[in-house]
Amino acid sequence: MSGVLVPVPGGWRGPEAPAVVVFPHAGGSPRQYAAWTRVMAGIPGAPSVLGATYPGRDRRMSDPHPPTLQDLAREIADALACLSEPPAVLAGHSLGATVAVEAALELRRRGAVRRPPVLVVSGQAPPDLAGGGGLHRASDEELLADVSRIGDSTARALADPDVAALHLPVIREDYRLIETYRPTRRQESDMTAHIVVVRGSEDTELPLEAAAGWHRWGTRVTGPVRVPGDHLHHLTRPELALLCGGLARKGAEL
């Protein structure tokens, strides 16, 4: 398994288990999903949990950042296509939701999977409403203020100048990917996956009407499903992990 796609800590349950692949938020890492493996352990036939690792972190610390979000998605699609069995669920949060969509479109265009995985998109507007903004060009102080506003626990660590010098450039590059993003032109037949839209009840980053816009992006769209929590509910609450685990198990039974 490549450094692009890695098991979440404690998340590998063997090649026969259905797989949930998580796509982290800006500045995020698969390591932050370790709690998901504990939550899913109680699900009969628990899935493996794999994570897409973006450049600049973990095993990919020295890898160059891609020019566009689509380039990142294609790189991840390459790794997904090499799995012995296609994943049951692609679960993306915030930036990761957009990356997951583009990876799913790439797999579809290649004909790389027999059955498209369920696409769980959390904390993000649909591609036609994503993108825009200039925080990736802002000062370090302004960028740190935005990370703190959203509530990412990383912000506390970034108060240390040495930590900030290491991690703020990575966050800035992730912001650049989503702020300069323009959706890939698609045909109606491209998005055949079941899309499940999830929104935290206290998420001020994703208005309800924007979340509802996902219904323009597929013929089978569920949600928005309301779960407790703010924009980073996926790191502090179990509901999204349980939803993804249940969907993976259901898909494995089909």
Could you characterize the architecture of this molecule?
GO terms for molecular function: fatty acyl-CoA hydrolase activity. Keywords: Hydrolase. Residues 20-236 form the Thioesterase domain. This is Thioesterase TesA. It catalyses: a fatty acyl-CoA + H2O = a fatty acid + CoA + H(+). With 254 residues, the protein is an alpha/beta fold. The chain has a single domain (5-133, 184-250), classed as Rossmann fold (3-Layer(aba) Sandwich), CATH 3.40.50.1820. It is built from nine helices and seven strands, in the order ββαβαβαβαααβαβαα. The protein has helices at residues 34-40, 69-81, 95-110, 140-150, 154-157, 161-179, 208-212, 233-236, 239-253; strands at 5-7, 19-23, 48-52, 89-93, 118-122, 195-200, 221-227. The protein has a seven-stranded mixed beta sheet with strand order 1-3-2-4-5-6-7, sandwiched between helices. β4 (89-93), α3 and β5 (118-122) form a beta-alpha-beta unit. α2 packs across α3.
Strand proportion, as a percent range, falls in 5-15%
In the predicted model, the low-confidence regions spanning at least 5 consecutive residues are none
Largest sheet report: 7 strands, mixed
What best-fitting shape do the alpha-carbon axes yield? globular
Instruction: Give the C-level CATH assignment.
Output: Alpha Beta
Count of domains: 1
CATH architecture: 3-Layer(aba) Sandwich
The number of helices is 9
